[in-house]
Amino acid sequence: SPSTIMRRVGEDTQLYQVIRIDGDKLFYESRTAVGDLYDGFVKGKASVAPALKHVAVLKDPIRVLSYTNDGKNGMLAGTDKGLFRTYNVAGGWDKLSFGAGIDEQVFAVHSPASDSQTILAGTVRSGVIVSRDGGLTWAKISGISDTTPIVAIETAPQNPNLIYVGTSQTFYLSRDGGQNWIRRGGGLPPGGYNSILVSPDNPNEVFVGSSSEERGGIYHSVDAGNSFKQLDTKDISLPTRRVWALSFDAKNSNKIFVGTHSSGIYRIERDATSKSNETGTRPRVADNGN
Fold first, then answer.
1. 249-284: per-residue pLDDT in tens?
2. Are 188 and 196 in contact (CB under 8 A)?
3. pLDDT, average across residues 172-188
4. Taking CA 117 as the corner, what is the angle to CA 115 and CA 118, rounded to the nearest 5 degrees?
5. Angle at 180 between CA 67 and CA 155, to 5 degrees
6. What is the pTM of this model?
7. Residue-wise over 173-196: b if at least 16 C-beta within 10 A, else e?
8. How far apart are CA 99 and CA 110, in angstroms?
9. What are phi and psi of 67, to 5 degrees?
């Protein structure tokens, strides 16, 4: 305004500028001819979320669906062209960008219920990748082969540091949130482990399903994957040992649904009086009465 008084500062002063970058910070200095600091500032790099690609419908093959587990009733969809998320299917899907150099074909995805900001995705040619900030940034997890398709990922509901990963050839487990990995627990043969269940009552009890033609079936561990035992074949008269999917009954974890290769879906019932840490538990195929 006309009443504003502006006072000139630095008139007829020779200045030179120094600009340097250190990590995500930019340093600016204005100095006089004799080197005295005249002015300066430090500016940090703004954390800007990548723009999300929005699509009305998913047109590429969907390989896996999983809940976001963040209390918003969202869904994650792994496809041949990336990972997508929605909180309203009718409103469309947002693509979560992995960044350059990471395979977009996703066969497995999991977000722990106790840590919804963490998302684990299993790719075909980049191994397992992880986001710790709800899908904004991603990094590859070391210690797992990136030449074999990842087909299953699960964590213990009570302890997200217990991570189990199934590939088309073998099985991995980690007890420290993915920093270190063990390949295939004792008694577990090579094979494609397409499904993993962790007991909601005991984080050390794990079931895995293998689709291998030779030694496929359901394997059971009561020591968090240190050792496995194939469920008693005399009590489970399934027409095929090739298992593609496992799921607990939502109302009773002693009942397990089994999706098999070309032979339908079966329900296996465990003795409700037996404890989950008893290796002698003998499941049986339920009749069609219920």
1. 988 888 999 888 877 888 888 765 544 444 444 445
2. no
3. 88
4. 75
5. 20
6. 0.74
7. bbbebbeebeebbeebbebbbbbb
8. 19
9. -75, 150
Q: 């469309």: which residue's tokens?
A: 92
Whole-Å CA distances, 35 to 12, 30, 32, 43, 83: 16, 9, 5, 22, 54
Structure tokens at 159: 């302890």
Tell me what the mean pLDDT of segment 87-99 comes to: 95
Name residue 106's amino acid.
Answer: V
pLDDT tens column, 185-202: 677 888 899 999 999 888
CA distance 121 to 153: 8
Pairs from 210-215 (Cβ < 8 Å, separation ≥ 24)? 210/241, 210/242, 210/243, 211/242, 211/243, 211/244, 211/261, 212/241, 212/242, 213/242, 215/189, 215/190, 215/191, 215/241
Task: Indicate the helix (H) or strand (E) that contains 246.
Answer: strand 243-249
Question: How far apart, in whole angstroms, are the C-alpha atoms of residue 111 and residue 265?
Answer: 26
What does each C-alpha distance from 69 to 7, 43, 72, 116 come to in angstroms? 59, 36, 7, 6
Q: What are phi and psi of 147, to 5 degrees?
A: -110, 0
3-state secondary structure of 89: helix
Q: HSE (CB half, 13 Å, CA atoms) of 199?
A: 20
Please name which of 167, 156, 254 lies closest in space to residue 202, comparing C-alpha atoms.
156
pLDDT tens digits for range 55-73: 999 999 999 999 999 999 9
Q: Which sign, positive or negative, has the C-alpha torsion 265, 268, 269, 274?
A: negative
Question: Which amino acid makes up residue 149?
Answer: P
